[in-house]
């Protein structure tokens, strides 16, 4: 396990929101990718904390989530 980390500030990143996100300000997240990390933040709290995960972990999570049925709201 490596203890090295690479830090990008949120201002240095290009953030985007899913095309599935509505414009009503609901439960949306924004993501920004770097070569080794996908950064995730709350679209309603852009100055709040940012979660960073490896690109492999993001890919596995997206694959898992994409294969699941959407809940009825």
Describe the structure.
This protein is an alpha+beta fold. Helices cover 16% and strands 23% of the residues. It contains 1 helix and 4 strands. Strands 1-2-3-4 form a 4-stranded antiparallel sheet. A hairpin with a 3-residue loop joins strand 2 (29-33) and strand 3 (37-42). It starts with 15 loop residues before the first strand and ends in a 7-residue tail after the last helix. The model is unreliable at 1-5 (pLDDT under 50). This is DUF397 domain-containing protein. Pfam families: DUF397. It comes from Streptomyces xinghaiensis. Residues 15-60 form the DUF397 domain.
Task: Please give the domain count.
Answer: 1
- Helix fraction? 10-25%
Q: Based on helices, strands and strand pairing, what is the structural class?
A: alpha+beta
Distance between the termini: 41 Å
Q: Give me the strand/helix succession.
A: EEEEH
User: Using only CA atoms, what is the Rg?
Assistant: 14 Å
Kindly estimate the percentage of residues that lie in beta strands according to DSSP.
Answer: 15-25%
């Amino acid at each position: 396990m490596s203890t090295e980390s690479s830090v990008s500030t949120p201002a240095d990143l290009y953030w985007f929101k899913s095309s599935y996100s509505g414009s009503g300000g609901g439960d949306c997240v924004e993501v920004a990718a770097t070569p080794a990390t996908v950064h995730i933040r709350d679209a309603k709290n852009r100055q709040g904390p940012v979660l960073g995960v490896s690109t492999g972990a993001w890919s596995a999570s997206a694959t898992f989530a994409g294969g699941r049925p959407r809940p009825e709201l």
